[in-house]
């Protein structure tokens, strides 16, 4: 079966090579780079104000924008637009000093007023807890800003200074007010290493190096990020030289890159994970209200086999929805694969012959994982059919709580266990459809605990409760696979700690 599929893949790829019409490597200047993205690029990702608790938007945001503090090569959270910051002894005040001379792409200086404006307009993931914890923002002078908290909050810098949220990214106040929210998305201006040139919806985003960036001027002078949701097309573009990077490869396509001596397959090392959500588990009339049914799903999954099929063995099976590389993650083993135990649990729950569970939607474009989950669930009597969605529609439906039954999802934003609990477990977070009062109380307790060991104990307790109550079916930590073409000398994919995208401005191409 696998051999037959591989032959079909190769034939399809050969056909795609004849119809892809982009410029080959020979047609590009030695300082031009092409990325083949796995999703359709959303203009929402040009503006940090509404970023969800997902990592994909940062593949765009970190080209166009910069933050006071953010991850960059060698730094999980280092000084960027701010040259320094201090925390008061009582933990109530954080003061930032901006770098002198930093400007936005259109030449206007980055000031503390822009920082305050950007924070106040932020409405993305984590906005609720940020605005709840921050008492006021004080613009001291053009180069100095202070954040005053109601109570000590040890995670302020995690939420503000990492890709757990995009609240720390700074946009030009005067320009946003001049062009409006929609105008800003059509032509964003930031302070990042690349400037916006053009965006063709559904096709590509074109960027050029910002000569005034504070850290360095990019080795890449022109970068084109293409929207290529089809995985076989991304592979064909990589093989023909139309693309230098092909993102989010899996299964037999990733194997094909491994076998090609001209290409390199690189596994990312970021804080990402797949799991199954049970959004109806809080509804007494739902089949998913029964803990035994949710536990049956967990026993039905052969996580090691899913890892091999989709991720070539790079993605370790998971026992909790907080990635193991995160601070305060509970290091625990997954529920073992036991289909007979799954069937027994279904029978005990009143479904000796299984039941029709309707549709299962997998997070795009990771359909190999979705297909594997469907196969394992069907094998134990949980009858589901896979339905695919476009990525932006999936995220919108998830956040608006329109996805029912069960679905495969994932997240790759950085931070620590507390940021994941806030987004996906805490009942008042952006994504949960329900929750538990005791877990909510524990989340609020750890948020004020300044002793690291005590915080860890509470966060471990929260994660263990999600296991005990079978709130999720964790699948595996994701080590997203990226194909790299022969023009790339230094791919920089591992340069930024816990980040799946390369340090774009540090990429080195042949001839440069």
β-strand percent reads 15-25%
Number of structurally distinct domains? 3
The CATH homologous superfamily of the largest domain is named Dipeptide-binding Protein, Domain 3
Number of helices: 16
Strand order in the largest sheet: 8-9-10-1-11-18-12
Structural class of the helices, strands and pairings?
Answer: alpha+beta
Quickly name the level 1 CATH class of the largest domain.
Alpha Beta
The fold-level CATH name of the largest domain is Dipeptide-binding Protein, domain 3
CATH architecture of the largest domain: Roll
Report on the biggest sheet.
Answer: 7 strands, mixed
Could you report the average pLDDT, rounded to the nearest whole number?
Answer: 93
Distance between the termini: 44 Å
Q: Which range best describes the helical content: under 10%, 10-25%, 25-40%, 40-55%, 55-70% or over 70%? A: 25-40%
β-strand number? 20
Coarse shape = globular
* Poorly predicted residue ranges: 1-21
**Radius of gyration computed on alpha carbons:** 23 Å
Give a quick rundown of the structure.
The chain has helices spanning 2-19, 58-64, 112-121, 127-133, 156-160, 173-186, 231-240, 251-259, 291-300, 303-311, 339-348, 367-380, 391-399, 417-424, 437-447, 452-468; strands spanning 32-37, 69-72, 75-79, 82-87, 93-98, 134-141, 144-149, 194-200, 204-209, 222-227, 245-249, 264-267, 272-277, 355-362, 382-386, 406-411, 472-478, 481-484, 488-490, 508-509.
